[in-house]
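One example copied in:
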Amino acid sequence: MKILLDTHVLLWWLSGDRALPRAAHAAIADPETTVVVSAASAWEIAIKRVAGRLEAPDDLVDALRANDFEMLAISVAHALAAGRLPPHHGDPVDRMLVAQAQIEGLTLVTVDQRLPEYDVTLLAI
């Protein structure tokens, strides 16, 4: 299985937070799973850290590498697809994650209750 982590899921995993649903934890921990993190999540984390709204690792790239997570860049195709999505969700980062999951054939791991409104495979809702 190939999964794309929503930003909050990534942060819960990295901090060992018990808010991470068991199904998500099992999928991430499974050595057969390819875990992908979007550049959009890194951008969201950086913005919120600077604003003082979030605690996150200073060394996010090192943390991703230490966990053997793949890093997914944002392409023009991703941007165009995210822009075409219906406005079920007001957060552009979440719409980008949906678009990336759709285009790349990834299962999006999230607890965001608005994302099932999109045509995307989800885990951990």
Q: What stands out?
A: The helical segments are 7-15, 22-29, 39-50, 60-66, 76-84, 92-104. Strands lie at 2-5, 34-38, 70-72, 107-109, 122-123. The chain is about 45% helix and 15% strand. The first strand starts at residue 2 and ends at 5.
